Amino acid sequence: MSKKISFTFDGKKYFGKENHSLADALLDNGIFLLGRSFKYHRPRGLISAGSEEANAIVQLETGNITQPNVRATEITLYEGLKAKSQNRWPTLNLDIGSINDFLSRFFPAGFYYKTFMWPPKFWEKYEYFIRRAAGLGKSPTDDDPDKYEHFHYHCDVLIVGGGISGLYAAELAAKANLKVLVLEQYPQLGGEINNQDKLKESDQNTIFQNIYSNLKNFDNVKIVTSTTVFAYMHNNYLLASQKTNNKKIREIIWKIRAKKVVLSTGSIERPLTFHNNDRPGIMLSHSARKYANKGIDLGKNIIVFTNNDYAYEAAIDLKLINNENKVTVVDIRNDSKGDLIKKAKTLGIKILFNHVVTNTKGRKRINSVFVHKIDNEKNKIIDNYGKISCDILCVSGGWSPTVHLFTQSRGKLIYRESDATFIPNESFQNEISIGACNGTYALDKILEETDDKMSNLLSSFKINIKNNNHASLNKIKKIFYDKMKHLWIIPSNIDFKKTKMFVDFQNDVTAKDIQLALKEGYRSIEHVKRYTTTGMATDQGKTSNINALGIISKLTDTPIYKLGTTTFRLPYTPVTFGALAGRHVKEFFDVERTTPMHQWHLDNKAKFEDVGQWKRAWYYPINNEDMHQAVNREVKATRNGIGILDASTLGKIDIKGRDANEFLNRVYTNAWSKLGIGKCRYGLMLGDDGMVIDDGVTSRLGENHYIMTTTTGNAASVMSKLEDWLQTEWPELKVFLTSVTEQFATISINGPFATNLIQKLCVNFDFSYENFPHMSFKNIEIGGVNCRVMRISFTGEKCYEINVPSSYAQSLWSKCFELGKEFNITPYGTEAMHVLRAEKGFVIVGQETDGSVTPIDLDMSWIVSKKKYDFIGKRALYRSDTSREDRKQLVGILTKDPNIVLEEGAQLVEKVSKPPMKMIGHITSSYYSPNLGRSIALALVKEGLKKKGKKIYAPMPNKTIEVEICNPVFIDPSNERLSA
């Protein structure tokens, strides 16, 4: 006896059975009306029993754990479950929105593209109602209390699908001693056998039990259920979403890298397209069979409407479950010699060949169908059979292989005319497709195909296995299935323009909508899809796409294979944002990185700013200083004594290899061939478009060894670009890159007394200018620790940058303060650093540049080599646009009133007039310089280099500020301080 589980639907309490889905439980309670369609708000019920479900979409739970648009077929029942129907008001039974159904002639496909365009001034009113109508469920507004996880997994063979073909493939791979992972989207393994009575003996049940019991003996096989593979990407990298019963973790995203992939994802039954084919109680035949075999009473009067033999399996089971059930099959075909038809006749099932269902009745649950006889040659109605009462209508238009993952992997499909399906043809990656997803449906053929394909797959591992067919293969009873008949639009006795033949059930797309799209001039299947929205609902066209293609084919008299298919985009089924985010939320959304001296900064009351992922000391207030006062003090102390900066966040990339020199020549604009060992050089890096993307100093440590520094915010992107260029553009270069940003901390000692301090740190080293000039590098032992010391400066002062192993950085930092007291050593933060570099006219990439600035614009043509054959971005520098004389150029700006500090981003004009004014540039950096006793700024101004000394204006909301264009170097233009 199954355990009873209570749940609520639309506020009413019901009971279901353990291991049943919400869909099972609702049907078991006699509830067939489960939702409303999106556009017309028509009553809708279950159409399927799987992930292809388009109608039974519910709002699961309430409050901060609520989840919209969840398929009732994919929710395993649990105690206290709360579900609510969607897209209705005020109730499911009485939905005011259903008035749209009666006004449907005014809402054809594409009506919103035209209706809401006129008059333009009404748009704001339209928008309110459109936004209210948009969507189906409601997203939670509170924080999600659940946790999500990401899990990485590597295997030899990944098998997607736990049906017989998938499990048999797993058994063969396991016997070859390979690491095997099997993922099944449903809670139960077995695939097709879950549609049958599991207690009844059958070939499928016997083989499944045999294979499954064998798999239990292998330690190298991992089987995970309730896990849907939703993305198949490059290099056999796949993503899967696992629903868990763990109270602490709601979902897990599997990130899988497999040497080989076996797709055994099954197939999806297709509906038939006829008038009023969407009523509650109309469902796919194999889904009805599955529900019935779970003990769910679907009714006594059952109609099966089909164009193929497979639907007879449902008819037979529905009859065998209860002999009192009145089962009638309406078959489009003239006749069928199939074995199942013979069995149906022996059970007394009535079969109407040459007949079609042309209409249905029953607003909230089907109660009858209208049947007509057709001429199969002309596909036209020739006689009225009459009205038949029914409790349920099972439909089957054939099967569509589930090729979504195959096409995501860039595999090519081919159209098979015999059953009107697209099947896998050419694999792009290390993958095979077997079973129903490969268009193979008969059990004996599936086992033979799996044997053959797995033999070839295993041979790639240099494993030879005997092509032994499954032991039960010869015992399988072979069933003959006769041909199906394609009829994409079922003939009707009603004018086609007045029919409601639904193709996409969720979005209310009908056959006449597709006809309208064709009349509007759309020919591409992708354009028709977007105009009508067919295949764009939450089910992504699993039951509608092939029918839409067939209808277009019929209406345009174009073979389906010439139409092609729409794109099978990921994800295969919807994935929650929570699962995609995993643990990367709130404080873990972006990793917070700190330097080895971070605790010292905290202890000394530093204020911080975020620079990329890094927490950098912004300024160090003392004695209740405000930011302006603290920064002024730090700037003056650096110019007059010693300023010390924690520059550990700068990107550091170790470059090694015989072609390192050539590599640097290609990525930087200037020449590197003659840079001596122990020397440093400043470099600019451009994108393909010739625009500045990064700058920094690179030092030569050895013959084939360099260390490159990058800006803090661009360290990761520069590393990525360098690797990209090496791996895709210059694979012949022998160069190896290693990020060492966190392996070394950087202590920058600046100021006129910098040499005095570092001499105290290294008493026995000669720091004279002759021995250690500017732009040079030395390996020096400081306090018993090997350090890399560079004479480079971002302040214009004498500077020593010490790269020390991170574990020793805090100690050396503290030692500097201990020895530097007599020189008024002062820590300075990023704000003072900005003022100091602006006083010298040094640029910051991302502040003086914005992706549209070249080295020439920065007045740095001196750094662009005229002799080098090539470098990244060189060609772009000679384009007509990048060589224009009227481009914006970097200049200095001085305000007439020295106490006014301009706003960064302020626009500059030559003449003040009524808005809009003609802008000639903008302020990129603006500060108050305590060393100059006035404000200074840098700007990009059109033809700015020619306009030095000219007065221009910065119009602000409450005043206009007069400024003068000047040289961007405000302090020590001759660089005397660097060598003093």
Quick summary of this structure?
This protein is an alpha+beta fold. Strands 8, 9, 10, 11, 12, 13 and 26 form a 7-stranded mixed sheet that branches.
Plain-language structure description:
22% of the residues lie in helices and 28% in strands. The protein has 23 helices and 47 strands. The radius of gyration is 37 Å and the shape is elongated. The chain is of the alpha+beta class and 980 residues long. Helix 5 runs parallel beside helix 6 (203-215), helix 5 packs parallel to helix 11 (443-459) and helix 12 packs across helix 14. Strand 24 and strand 25 form a beta hairpin. The strands form 12 sheets. Strands 8, 9, 10, 11, 12, 13 and 26 form a 7-stranded mixed β-sheet that branches. Strands 38-39-40-37-31-41 form a 6-stranded mixed β-sheet. It has a 6-stranded antiparallel β-sheet with strand order 43-44-45-42-47-46. The mean pLDDT is 92. The relative contact order is 0.07.
